[in-house]
Write a structure and sequence with these properties.
Number of domains: 1
Structural class: alpha+beta
Helix content: 10-25%
Distance between the termini: 29 Å
Number of strands: 8
Number of helices: 2
Largest sheet: 4 strands, antiparallel
Strand order of the largest sheet: 1-2-3-6
């Protein structure tokens, strides 16, 4: 991967972490997600979660295509968090929505029953 691309990815992640730290979040969770369960690795992501305030999702090294981010909880409820932007990012600031999820995952299909590409517990 070109050094410029790696630098851009790193700069985005540093910016996201800085934004969340500015929120004054005591309970900031940073989760790195790697899909090691497949023979061929399909991308990676980093999630910045300020409990009850904000969630920033940054995916990288994904093949081209639309990707959708979902939230779920232990009760099995699944919520649409939105589609990843072209740069692989998605930000959610809806405290009510965030209070209802404890896991995030990505699919390439617009429905939550699609095959999970990346997933992590918050």
């Amino acid at each position: 991967m070109a050094a410029a691309v790696l630098f851009q990815q790193h700069a985005r992640l540093v910016k996201a972490e800085h934004e969340l730290r500015e929120l004054g979040a005591r309970n900031l969770v940073i989760v790195d997600i790697y899909d090691d369960a497949r023979a061929v690795r399909v991308g990676a992501a980093r999630v910045f979660y300020a409990e009850g305030k904000s969630l920033l999702f940054y995916a990288y090294d994904l093949p081209a295509g639309p990707y959708y981010v979902w939230g779920s909880n232990k009760g099995g409820s699944r919520r649409n968090l939105g589609a990843l932007a072209r740069d692989g990012s998605l930000r959610i600031d809806d405290a009510k929505l965030l209070a209802d999820i404890d896991q995030v995952f990505v699919t390439s299909e617009p429905g939550p029953q699609g095959k999970k590409i990346l997933s992590a517990r918050l």
